[in-house]
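Database export, one record per block. Field names are fixed; values are copied verbatim from the stored entry.
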Amino acid sequence: MVTTATAASSSAGTLDVPSLVSQLMALERQPIDKLNAKITANDTKISSFGTISGLVSGLQTAVQNLSKSLNGFATTTSDSTVFSSSASSTAVAGSYALNVTSLAQSQSLVSTGVASSSSAISDGTSTTLSFDFGTTTGASFVTNGSGVKSITIDGTNNSMQGIAAAINAANIGVTATIINDGSASAPYRLSITSSSSGESNSLKISTSGGDGTIDALLAYDPAGAKNLTQTVAAQNANFTLNGIAITSASNTVASAIQGVSITLNQTTTSPATLTVAHDSTAVSTAATSFVDSYNALYNQMKSRSAYGTSALAGDGTVRLMMTQLRSVFMTGATGGTMSLLSQAGINSQADGTLKLDSAALTSALSTNYSDVSNLFTSTSGFGTRLDAWATSVLSVGTGLIATRTSSIQASTDGYNTRISQLENRMTTLQKQYTTQYSNLNMLLSSMNNTSSYLTVQLAKL
């Protein structure tokens, strides 16, 4: 109800129409305001589910990392200057004595010097410079079958710099650099190196066409003319593992020991020891991350679904997720001597969270590693079931979170449709009120004029 004092705008008794209509429209808009409040609440709910979704994803990652750590291996070396190594999940625990007699090398060849690295070497006639790769034994060369690779030297690149640039740009398995040896008359020399190490990657370089200048500078035939000087011979790595002789074209050896990659760094005078074992340190770190991730998720779901002022107070989906999550721990794992996480130092607390006993976990890993792994990674393992639960919850379109947020969004869409309808009504209603009270103002003005006229006439009488 609008009071006379509020509606009056002057001593003449006319109405303040804009103010009156504004007050009336404020009352009429209350249903829209309530709908907007519901939309805001829904947005908060969706945001809360976004937070929970991120925590579920974080738990799943922690579970997967713990499973990976339990299935993983680590390597240690008695001398890290001799070699470095790493192991995958396919490795097998063991110890190996490693002796390195030679390291793999890439062949390097160097040309005679020229006075200028930028001046033309030939007359610019097109010359094909070809590279073949193979094994050199004495004066013979046997190609490795990778094919001859060629580049063209002509008037645009027939300087030392141009040739080096052309070789490097072609990406054909060799690299070229210009070396200044400091001599007075012809210091610039072209160094050509095979990109791959090993005896089977020796070079044979030939030319065709041109005026013969490029051939005289760069041709290299192990069985013929050698216009380049070999500074480093192609060589395989030779080493022994537990007395077994092994040869490798590369210093990185991935096939000598199952699941283990070794990178040789230098030769040895006495054996270095390589040990492959389960990585208990990585497992402990991953277990800590798992417990922290679980607790972060559980506490968030517990606080956000608590009755009170929280956005998801009493939300059935969150409570169902909590029930499902707790149920994972109610059934023990099978297939090993351990069936409960507490046997590996991961204990359930009264408030629903988990607590890690690091000492108990370390002891279990040292005495019964395979059963700890089974407890978490087997088909019935807790990690396997938690991973499956997280996948189900996070499933796009059909997961609990997606279904609930879709329902909330559908509710918001309905509210927005109703608001749109009410806004149209508000536009019409505002026009009606404005017209109605403007007409009333005109009537009041007319009545005031009549009253004034009568007052004057009566005064004359």
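Remark 1: The longest helix spans residues 400-460.
Remark 2: The domain at 108-232 is CATH 2.60.40 (Immunoglobulin-like).
End of record.
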